[in-house]
Amino acid sequence: MGCNKESYQLDHSFGRNLAFRSGFKSILFVDSAALFFFVGLLFSAIAMCVTAIMPNIDSFNYPSFLFITPMFILSGTFFSITSLPATAQIVANIFFPLTHAVALTRALIVGRLSWTLLLNLSWFLVTTPFFFVLSINLMKKRLIK
Protein backbone atom coordinates (compact mmCIF):
# COMPACT_ATOMS: atom_id res chain seq x y z
CA MET A 1 0.00 0.00 0.00
CA GLY A 2 1.84 3.03 -1.26
CA CYS A 3 1.30 6.72 -1.02
CA ASN A 4 -0.26 8.24 -4.07
CA LYS A 5 -0.88 11.87 -4.95
CA GLU A 6 -4.53 11.88 -3.89
CA SER A 7 -3.89 10.42 -0.42
CA TYR A 8 -1.00 12.85 0.12
CA GLN A 9 -3.19 15.82 -0.77
CA LEU A 10 -5.97 14.56 1.48
CA ASP A 11 -3.57 14.05 4.42
CA HIS A 12 -1.87 17.39 3.81
CA SER A 13 -5.12 19.34 3.65
CA PHE A 14 -6.44 17.52 6.73
CA GLY A 15 -3.30 18.45 8.69
CA ARG A 16 -3.48 22.07 7.57
CA ASN A 17 -7.15 22.31 8.56
CA LEU A 18 -6.45 20.66 11.89
CA ALA A 19 -3.62 23.10 12.64
CA PHE A 20 -5.81 26.04 11.64
CA ARG A 21 -8.73 24.84 13.74
CA SER A 22 -6.57 24.07 16.76
CA GLY A 23 -6.62 27.74 17.65
CA PHE A 24 -3.39 29.34 16.50
CA LYS A 25 -5.31 31.85 14.42
CA SER A 26 -5.50 34.51 17.12
CA ILE A 27 -2.91 37.26 17.34
CA LEU A 28 -3.48 37.21 21.10
CA PHE A 29 -1.40 34.03 21.18
CA VAL A 30 1.65 36.32 21.28
CA ASP A 31 0.41 37.77 24.57
CA SER A 32 0.36 34.32 26.12
CA ALA A 33 4.17 34.48 26.48
CA ALA A 34 3.73 37.14 29.19
CA LEU A 35 1.05 34.99 30.79
CA PHE A 36 3.41 32.00 30.82
CA PHE A 37 6.00 34.11 32.66
CA PHE A 38 3.51 35.07 35.38
CA VAL A 39 2.19 31.52 35.67
CA GLY A 40 5.76 30.28 36.09
CA LEU A 41 6.47 32.99 38.64
CA LEU A 42 3.39 32.05 40.65
CA PHE A 43 4.10 28.32 40.62
CA SER A 44 7.75 28.87 41.54
CA ALA A 45 6.74 31.13 44.43
CA ILE A 46 4.30 28.50 45.69
CA ALA A 47 7.02 25.84 45.36
CA MET A 48 9.45 28.00 47.36
CA CYS A 49 6.82 28.43 50.09
CA VAL A 50 6.39 24.66 50.28
CA THR A 51 10.17 24.17 50.29
CA ALA A 52 10.56 26.62 53.14
CA ILE A 53 8.01 24.91 55.40
CA MET A 54 8.88 21.25 54.74
CA PRO A 55 10.77 19.80 57.71
CA ASN A 56 12.66 17.13 55.73
CA ILE A 57 12.93 15.45 52.34
CA ASP A 58 10.40 12.76 53.27
CA SER A 59 7.61 15.34 53.49
CA PHE A 60 7.81 16.47 49.88
CA ASN A 61 5.29 13.85 48.76
CA TYR A 62 2.47 15.52 50.69
CA PRO A 63 2.10 18.59 48.43
CA SER A 64 2.13 16.34 45.40
CA PHE A 65 -0.71 14.18 46.68
CA LEU A 66 -2.70 16.89 48.45
CA PHE A 67 -2.32 19.82 46.03
CA ILE A 68 -0.88 18.95 42.62
CA THR A 69 -2.92 15.85 41.80
CA PRO A 70 -6.32 17.37 42.76
CA MET A 71 -5.32 20.55 40.90
CA PHE A 72 -4.72 18.63 37.67
CA ILE A 73 -8.01 16.78 38.01
CA LEU A 74 -10.19 19.73 39.02
CA SER A 75 -8.68 22.69 37.17
CA GLY A 76 -10.08 22.12 33.70
CA THR A 77 -6.86 20.90 32.13
CA PHE A 78 -8.25 17.65 30.78
CA PHE A 79 -11.99 18.35 30.74
CA SER A 80 -14.21 21.37 31.19
CA ILE A 81 -14.58 22.73 34.68
CA THR A 82 -18.28 23.34 34.02
CA SER A 83 -18.88 19.58 34.09
CA LEU A 84 -17.83 19.47 37.76
CA PRO A 85 -20.27 19.85 40.67
CA ALA A 86 -20.77 23.41 41.88
CA THR A 87 -18.75 22.84 45.06
CA ALA A 88 -15.79 21.51 43.11
CA GLN A 89 -15.97 24.50 40.75
CA ILE A 90 -15.84 26.90 43.69
CA VAL A 91 -12.89 25.07 45.24
CA ALA A 92 -11.05 25.04 41.90
CA ASN A 93 -11.64 28.74 41.30
CA ILE A 94 -10.53 29.76 44.77
CA PHE A 95 -7.56 27.50 45.49
CA PHE A 96 -6.05 26.23 42.23
CA PRO A 97 -3.89 28.56 40.14
CA LEU A 98 -3.96 26.17 37.19
CA THR A 99 -7.70 26.82 36.76
CA HIS A 100 -7.04 30.48 35.98
CA ALA A 101 -3.98 29.73 33.86
CA VAL A 102 -5.94 27.27 31.71
CA ALA A 103 -8.85 29.68 31.25
CA LEU A 104 -6.57 32.56 30.25
CA THR A 105 -4.41 30.45 27.95
CA ARG A 106 -7.38 28.96 26.13
CA ALA A 107 -8.95 32.38 25.66
CA LEU A 108 -5.75 33.91 24.30
CA ILE A 109 -5.02 31.05 21.92
CA VAL A 110 -8.55 30.74 20.56
CA GLY A 111 -9.26 34.47 20.66
CA ARG A 112 -12.49 34.29 22.63
CA LEU A 113 -12.27 37.05 25.20
CA SER A 114 -14.92 37.68 27.85
CA TRP A 115 -15.32 39.73 30.98
CA THR A 116 -14.79 36.66 33.20
CA LEU A 117 -11.16 36.59 32.08
CA LEU A 118 -10.63 39.78 34.05
CA LEU A 119 -11.45 37.82 37.20
CA ASN A 120 -8.86 35.21 36.26
CA LEU A 121 -6.29 37.88 35.52
CA SER A 122 -7.02 39.75 38.74
CA TRP A 123 -6.63 36.47 40.66
CA PHE A 124 -3.12 36.20 39.23
CA LEU A 125 -2.33 39.85 39.93
CA VAL A 126 -3.30 39.42 43.58
CA THR A 127 -1.85 36.00 44.39
CA THR A 128 1.47 36.24 42.54
CA PRO A 129 2.91 39.14 44.59
CA PHE A 130 1.46 37.62 47.76
CA PHE A 131 3.17 34.24 47.28
CA PHE A 132 6.34 35.88 45.96
CA VAL A 133 6.79 38.02 49.09
CA LEU A 134 5.70 35.15 51.33
CA SER A 135 8.25 32.80 49.76
CA ILE A 136 11.07 35.30 50.25
CA ASN A 137 10.15 35.83 53.89
CA LEU A 138 9.76 32.12 54.60
CA MET A 139 13.09 31.28 52.98
CA LYS A 140 14.83 34.07 54.90
CA LYS A 141 13.36 32.73 58.10
CA ARG A 142 14.45 29.18 57.29
CA LEU A 143 17.96 30.07 56.16
CA ILE A 144 18.75 32.45 59.01
CA LYS A 145 17.82 29.91 61.73
Number of H/I helices:
6
Number of domains: 1
The ordered H/E elements are: HHHHHH
Radius of gyration: 20 Å
Structural class: mainly alpha
Instruction: Report the helical percentage.
Output: over 70%
Uncertain regions: pLDDT < 50 for 5+ in a row?
Answer: 4-19
Q: Profile the largest sheet.
A: none
Tell me the total number of β-strands.
Answer: 0
Binned strand content: under 5%
Give the rounded overall mean pLDDT.
82
Distance between the termini: 71 Å
Overall geometry comes to globular
Describe the protein's architecture and organization.
The longest helix is centred in the C-terminal third of the chain and has 29 residues, at 116-144. The protein has one domain (25-144). Helix 2 (32-53) runs antiparallel to helix 5 (97-110), helix 2 (32-53) runs parallel beside helix 6 (116-144) and helix 5 packs across helix 6. The protein is globular, with a radius of gyration of 20 Å. The chain is mainly α. The protein has helices spanning 5-21, 32-53, 61-74, 86-95, 97-110, 116-144.
Summarize the structure.
The protein is an all-alpha fold.
Descriptive labels:
145 residues, 6 helices, mainly alpha
SSE layout:
Blueprint lengths: L4 H17 L10 H22 L7 H14 L11 H10 L1 H14 L5 H29 L1
Helix pairs in contact: 2-5, 2-6, 5-6
